[in-house]
Each structure stands twice: as C-alpha cells, then as structure tokens.
Specification:
The chain is mainly α and 263 residues long. The chain contains 11 helices and no strands.
C-alpha cells in the first residue's frame, strides 16, 4: 500500500489532537462557569482556576516535584522487579507447556485479587517500610507483562518456526532471532500496560504508612479537607501517566517500525 503524503499525515495528526482537546476544554469551561455561579459547591469541588493556582504554588515551592520524584522512584523499582519477573515467567509459559500448566491455576487464583487486598498481607510479610510499597507496585506490573509475553510467544506463526528449523538454527538462535522478535509487539503492549498499572498502583502503595509521595499528598489532603491539593495530586498522576504512555508509544513506533501498517 502507498503511504499517505507527509502534509496529509500532519493535517491528520493536528485534527486528531484538536478533537482530543475539545472535550476536556468543554468540561473545564463548564466546570469553571458552574463553580463561578455557585451551582457546584466550591468547598467540595473547587474551580479549575483555583486548582491551577494551587498547582502553580506547589510547583513554585518544589513540593509537587519532591513527592512526584519519590513516587517515580518507587514505580521504577517496582516495575523493574515486577516487569522483569513477568517477562521471565511469560517466556517460560510461552515456550513450555509444562510451565504453562503448572502456573495456570496459580495465575487464575492470584490475578483477580485487587491491589488493596494485598496491603495487609505485605505488611505482615515485609512491614511498613519501602519493601511493601515496592512489592505492591511490582505485583500490579507483573500480570500484564506475563500474560502478554506468554500470549505473544504462543501466537507466533508456525511458518516462522518451520523456516528456523529448516535453516538449522540452534535453540538459542531460535529464541533470540525468531521467537522473541516475533512476540515483541505483544510484549511491548504488556510493558505499556505494566507501566500504567505500576503508576496507578502508587497511591495504593503509598497508603502503607508513607510520609512522602504523591499518594501521601492525596491522603493527607483528604484528611485536612484540602480538595484543591487533593485534585492537584490526582490530576498529576493522570498527566504523568499520559506522558509515560506517549513516550512508550513513541518508543514502540521506533522499535517496531517494521510492524506498522502502511497508511
């Protein structure tokens, strides 16, 4: 198929971006108007302009940066642990029917358990230090990487394997040159979902006796009845999560350029 001309692709991206911004702008404008008129209770749901002023103040004081960096550090450590384990076990389950059969029941039991239910278990096992927080984030990021990697390997086109066998490739070469590259689109999807889960788990993780982090900011603001600070914390999580996903999509397009359909 012929590729779309560069100017048309640019116009399409601008139109997509504009349409994506339209609904949030309408919601914010309506929210500001309703708050200004007193239709929305300002003590419960402050106007966007008030939230923005609070955001600017927290940025200027360095408070927001400090807590976001602490949370980001926990997310990086948790994802490295959970995502790495998910990748290893995903490869094992995808390559070996024995491993898949051994772990399928355990995965079916543990995966539906919500993150908040892990808190008392982790406190009993690891206490209230950093280990329990990082472990909770690791659990959240483990499942998407495991399941997508396993699914990607088991869904490889059999013809690719037959070609590798015909060329007399070794097992290691089959794994590194055929199986993993073919499964990488699924694996990368798992990584994106795992990073998103890790970041969304940070609030739950920081409910475990934390004194720093964006989750701590949200919980503390709730106790002090500071809805503007609370909403700054919540929206910061959303914006950081969005930026992470945009960066990962950009990396995916560069790494998996061969897998993109022609437009």
């Amino acid at each position: 198929m012929r590729r779309m001309p560069q100017n048309r692709r640019l116009e399409r991206r601008i139109r997509t971006f504009a349409l994506g911004c339209l609904l949030p702008v309408v919601i914010l404008a309506s929210w500001e108007y309703l708050g200004y008129k007193g239709i929305v209770n300002r003590s419960i749901l402050p106007r966007p302009s008030v939230i923005w002023a609070c955001f600017v103040d927290m940025i200027a004081s360095g408070r927001l940066k400090k807590h976001l960096l602490v949370s980001a550090s926990r997310v990086v450590k948790g994802f490295a642990l959970g995502g790495g384990a998910g990748l290893i076990f995903g490869i094992l389950c995808g390559l070996s029917k024995l491993w898949n059969d051994l772990l399928s029941s355990l995965i079916g039991i543990l995966r539906p358990i919500p993150m908040i239910a892990w808190i008392p278990i982790l406190i009993l096992l690891l206490g209230i230090d950093e280990g329990s927080k990082i472990s909770l984030i690791a659990i959240g990021s483990f499942w998407p990487v495991l399941l997508n990697t396993s699914r990607g390997i088991r869904g490889i086109d059999k013809k690719l394997l037959e070609v590798g066998i015909m060329l007399e490739k070794s097992r290691f070469q089959m794994l590194t040159k055929v199986i993993l590259p073919a499964a990488f689109p699924f694996t990368f999807t798992g990584i994106r979902l795992g990073v998103g889960n890790a970041w969304s788990c940070v609030v739950t993780a920081e409910a475990i006796a934390a004194a720093t982090g964006i989750g701590y900011v949200i919980m503390y603001a709730r106790e002090l009845l500071q809805p503007d600070v609370l909403l700054v914390g919540v929206l910061s999580i959303g914006f950081v999560g969005l930026m992470l996903d945009v960066v990962l999509m950009w990396i995916e397009k560069r790494v998996l350029r061969w897998n993109e359909p022609n437009e």
